[in-house]
């Protein structure tokens, strides 16, 4: 199940652009601290809701607020980045998680770097043997390592909990883009560049005595629902993928908003996408506002084992 849910993720490390570089002229006003936003106006008969997820999160932090549950109850469908309820599509994508033409990391890295990656993976990744791991598209491999490195007993995707809540209320699940499209993004970025990104991630972990500190800070930003800080943190690290920032983030944001303009006028929906897509000039919230919608923060009080 871990592999299935990671297939559709554009890894957080792949969002290698600077949030400060998003702002071409005058940046939008800072956003309030909330993961849940109400979308209304521009002729909508009923409001829709936008929620920022974290694809990989410690189970203790994975909590749905009463406000989010109410939003799901009051809307007709729930939209994720992809249709997580389409098991056949997800199973078919299992055939596309590996690099094309039988490529492996050995083909992309020199011997010294290859051994460094191999040693790290064998010591830090208990999901799959390295003989299989090295065949995976390196950005996906990075996500697997990131999850394995989380300092918690077990992990979960927020999407899983939201989908369970939606299905308990008999709400239909939909996707803003297909699994095939998401996987195609991995193939649009040169494998050698991806392998370099994977190596740099591993080096960053080996060279710091406080390995994992930055990711923990990002998790803290998510727990406190500070999406401005979260967006900056997610997009501040550059692993050589700057030229692909539009493909990874902004082109997808624009596509989603274009589709939502039709979807929300047909029926009220709850939209749950990665929180890193929400803030910024080219983020989903600002794009919706530019289209004339009112997008306001909703009190999203959380109750969990941790202090929020």
Overview of the molecule:
The protein has helices spanning 2-7, 66-74, 87-93, 111-124, 130-133, 138-148, 158-168, 179-188, 191-206, 213-223, 227-234, 245-266, 284-290, and strands at residues 36-40, 48-53, 57-58, 77-80, 155-156, 172-175, 269-274, 294-297. Mean pLDDT is 82; it is low at 1-24. It has 13 helices and 8 strands. The protein has a 6-stranded mixed beta sheet with strand order 6-4-7-2-1-8, sandwiched between helices. It has one domain (2-297). By secondary structure, it is an alpha/beta fold. It is globular. Helix 6 packs parallel to helix 9 and helix 10 (213-223) runs antiparallel to helix 11 (227-234).
Profile the largest sheet.
6 strands, mixed
| Cα-based radius of gyration, to the nearest Å | 19 Å
Q: What amount of the residues lies in strands?
A: 5-15%
The counted number of beta strands is 8
Could you say which structural class the secondary elements and strand pairing correspond to? alpha/beta
Spatial arrangement of strands, main beta sheet: 6-4-7-2-1-8
Following the backbone from N to C, one meets helices and strands in this order, namely: HEEEHEHHHHEHEHHHHHEHE
- C-alpha termini separation: 29 Å
Number of helices, counting only DSSP H or I runs of 4 residues or more: 13
| Total domain modules | 1
Helix share of residues? 40-55%
Integer average pLDDT: 82
Report the principal-axis shape.
globular
């Amino acid at each position: 199940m871990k592999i299935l849910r990671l297939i559709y993720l554009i890894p957080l490390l792949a969002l290698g652009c600077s949030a400060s570089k998003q702002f071409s002229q005058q940046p939008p006003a800072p956003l309030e601290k909330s993961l849940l936003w109400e979308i209304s106006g521009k002729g909508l008969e009923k409001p829709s809701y936008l929620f920022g997820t974290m694809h990989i999160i410690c189970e203790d932090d994975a909590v749905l607020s009463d406000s989010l549950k109410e939003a799901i109850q009051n809307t007709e469908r729930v939209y994720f980045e992809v249709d997580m309820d389409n098991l056949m599509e997800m199973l078919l994508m299992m055939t596309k998680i590996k690099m094309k033409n039988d490529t492996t990391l050995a083909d992309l890295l020199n011997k010294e770097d290859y051994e460094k990656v191999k040693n790290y993976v064998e010591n830090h990744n208990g999901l799959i043997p390295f003989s299989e791991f090295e065949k995976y598209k390196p950005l996906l491999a990075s996500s697997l390592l990131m999850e394995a490195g989380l300092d918690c007993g077990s992990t979960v995707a927020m999407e899983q909990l939201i989908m369970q809540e939606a299905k308990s209320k008999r709400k239909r699940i939909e996707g803003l883009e297909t699994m095939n499209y998401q996987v195609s993004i991995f193939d649009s970025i040169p494998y050698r560049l991806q392998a370099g990104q994977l190596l740099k991630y591993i080096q960053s972990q080996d060279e710091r005595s406080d390995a994992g500190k930055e990711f923990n800070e990002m998790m803290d930003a998510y727990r406190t629902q500070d999406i401005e800080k979260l967006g900056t943190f997610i997009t501040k690290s550059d692993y050589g993928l700057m030229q692909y920032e539009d493909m990874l983030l902004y082109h997808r944001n624009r596509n989603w908003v274009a589709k939502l303009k039709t979807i929300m006028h047909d029926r009220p929906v709850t939209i749950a996408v990665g929180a890193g897509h929400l803030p910024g000039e080219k983020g989903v919230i600002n794009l919706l506002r530019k289209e004339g919608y009112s997008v306001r923060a909703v009190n999203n009080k959380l109750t969990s084992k941790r202090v929020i």
